[in-house]
Amino acid sequence: MGSLGFWRLAQADPGWIAAVDPDGTEYSAGELLARANRLVHGLRALGLKAGDGVCGLVPNGVDGLTIYLAALQAGWYYTPINWHLTGPEIAYIVTDSEAKAFLVHERYATEGARGAEAIEADRRFSFGAIDGFRPVAELLEGQPDTPPQDRTAGATMHYTSGTTGKPKGVRRPLNGLDPDDAAELMTFLLSLFGITPGRPNAHLVTSPNYHTAVTQFGGTALHMGHTLVYMDKWSPEETLRLCEKYGVTNSHMVPTHFKRLLALPDEVKHKYDLSSLKWMIHAAAPCPVPVKWAMLEWWGDCIYEYYAATEGGGTIATPEGWKKHPGTVGSAWPISELLIVDDRYEPVPTGTPGTIYMKMAGVRFEYKGDPAKTEENRLRDHFTVGDIGYLDAEGFLFLCDRKADMIISGGTNIYPAEIENELMVHPKVADVAVFGIPDEEWGEQIKAVVEPAEGSEPGPELAGELLASLEGRLARMKWPRTIDFIQEMPREPNGKLLKRKLRDPYWEGRDRAI
C-alpha cells in the first residue's frame, strides 16, 4: 500500500485543486486537508472517540466533504442525511445512529433545527447562522491544522430509503486500518471500471451526496487524486458545460439524466467539447435500451453500467459487454457472486426470472439495531434487496423488476419496468410509472401514470397515441388498462421513483391480498 488516499496525496502535493463548489470556488488539497484536520481536533475536544457517529445535513459541496474526510481519518461513522426529510424523520436518524455531533447547513435550518432536538444543544453545529446552534467556525477556532494523533479508518453509515417501516443504517465493522490504506482498498471499486488514478482527472458529482453511490464514487475518485466538481441542482446543459470546463473524465449518473440530456436541442448537444469523457457510469434504475444506444452513439464507448446495493456486491457492464448483450446490467464483479432462486429458495435454470441474491467476498454488514431484518434478507452468505431478474447463458444479469412492484394479473406475473421502458422512449413522454391497481376480476390491472414531455397536451388523445405505440412491441396483456397524467413524477433526486406515493391511494382501505 502506499500511493493513494486523500490525506497522503494532499501532504505530498498540497497544491492540486481537490474540489470545486457549485458556486465555482476552488479548494486546494492542502486547504481541504487543513479543514478536515481542524474538524477532527475540534470534535475530539468535544469528547468524540473512535466508533462514535457524526451526522451531517448539508448540501453538495466542500462542507460535507470536510465532515467525510474528518470522520474517515478519526474512526467515526459518518451519516449524511437526506435533506428532503422532515424534522421528526431527521431526529429518528440522529437518535438511531447514536450521533455525538450534528452539523447542519443554514439552508436546511427549519427542519434541521426540529431534527436537532434529538441531540444535546452543545453538540449542534451550523454552517452559517442557525438559532440554537454553535457555528462550525467556533468549533474549528484555535484548532491546529496538523494531522491528528491515532488516526484510524472510519466509515460512512448510510440509511436505506426504507420502503417498509423506518429506514435502517447499513453498518459495517470498522477495520482498524490506517485511513489512507483503507481509502486505497476502496479504490478497488473504481478500478473495476478501468478508472486510473492521478491527474488530470475530474469527477462530476451530479446527484445528492447523501446517497451511498454518490459518496462512494466521489470519495473514491478523490482518494485517487481526481478533482471533485460539485453540482447543486442538476441540469442537462450545465452538465455539458462543466464537463468541458473542468475536463471531466468520470461521473455517476442515472437514466433520467440520460433522457433529459438526449432531449436537448442538437445545437446545444454539439456546442460543448466532451472529448475528456472516459468513464460515465450509471445505475439506480433500469435504462431503456434505445436510450442507452443513443447515449453510446453520442458519447462513444465511455458508458459503463452496474447493479449493486448499499449492502455490498454487484455486477458491471462495460460498453463492449452491453453492446453484445443489450439490456444487461452486466456480469458479477470478480469478488462477487450472484444466485437466482425461486420462491422455495431453489436455484432457477438459465433464462428463468427469480429473486436475485448477491454476496461479496469478505463483506459482512448489519442493519443497525435490527438483526431480524438483517437475517430475513439473507440466504446463507447471500442477501437480497428484493429484485427479480435472470442470468443468460454467459452469466449476464437482466433485471425484470422489484418483487414489491410486480403485478399479478389473472395469475400472470407482469413486470412494470418492461412496460415503462417501452413507454419511456416515446418522444411525448418525459417520465412514466407503471403499477398494479385493484381489479375485481383479475386481481390487479395495469395503470400507467405519465408525465408528458414539454409541449405535449395531456388527455385521452395522447393516451390513445401512447397505447397505439405499443402495438407489435408488447403483448396486449401487458398494455396499461388506463393512463393518467401528472405534472411531475415523484422521484428522489437520485432518480429513484417513489412509486408507493402513486400506488397507495388506489389500495386505500384494502389489504393487498396479492
TrEMBL record:
UniProt keywords, alphabetically: Ligase
Database matches in Gene3D superfamilies: 3.30.300.30, N-terminal domain of ligase-like (3.40.50.12780)
Keyword Thylakoid: no
Domain AMP-dependent synthetase/ligase as annotated: residue spans: 7-363
Family: Belongs to the ATP-dependent AMP-binding enzyme family.
PANTHER family for this protein: ACYL-COA SYNTHETASE (PTHR43201), MEDIUM-CHAIN ACYL-COA LIGASE ACSF2, MITOCHONDRIAL (PTHR43201:SF5)
Protein name per UniProt: Acyl-CoA synthetase
